[in-house]
Amino acid sequence: MIRVLLYEDNKEFREALTDALADSTSICLIKSFKNAKQVISQIKEYKPDVVLMDIEMPSISGLDALSKINMFIPNTKVLIQTQFEDNHSIFIALCRGAWGYVLKSSSFDKLEEAIIEVHQGGVFYSPIIAGKVRNSFLSSLVRK
After folding, report:
1. Rounded to the nearest 10 degrees, what angle do helices 11-22 and 108-119 cross at?
2. Cα gap 48→36, rounded to integer Å
């Protein structure tokens, strides 16, 4: 079983994910939090295989938490799950070490696939995000 910590401030979405993950035969949600204020101590305590992190949360954003995680616990695999599909958020998440970027509009099957892929050392992007990463990469090549 893949051990997952969840950081999600939206109570209804957090509860829905908790329920969905409870039915998974591959994933065990070990704990969920409404913010990432204590993210470092929580990761050290619970030792997850994958951290599922929202971007926009009170107190500390998921992107700032991602920076802290990579500074203090660099081998932690963080999968961003968010509604934001703008290039800036995607770029910052990738630069700060995210292993994947999944939109909240994705099906639970896609989320489960993303968690498994990241756990196995791969990366996972929602299709629209993968397209944006590709286009950004290609446009940077053209400019050179």
Report:
1. 70
2. 14
Contact between residue 99 and residue 124 where contact means Cβ atoms under 8 Å apart? yes
Beta strands in 8-138 (DSSP E): 27-33, 50-53, 77-82, 100-103, 124-125
- Rounded to an integer, what distance in angstroms lies between the CA atom of residue 102 and that of residue 121? 16
Contact residues for 118 (Cβ-Cβ < 8 A; gap 6+): 50, 77, 79, 99, 100, 124
Q: Which domains are assigned to the chain?
A: 2-143 (3.40.50.2300)
Residues (pLDDT < 70) of the chain are 143-144
- Residue pair 5/42 in contact (Cβ under 8 Å)? The answer is yes
Q: Which two tokens stand for residue 31?
A: 């704990």
Token pair for 54: 């929202």
Amino acid at 60: I
**What is the b/e burial string over 31-41, where b = at least 16 CB atoms within 10 angstroms of the residue's CB?**
ebbbbbeebbe
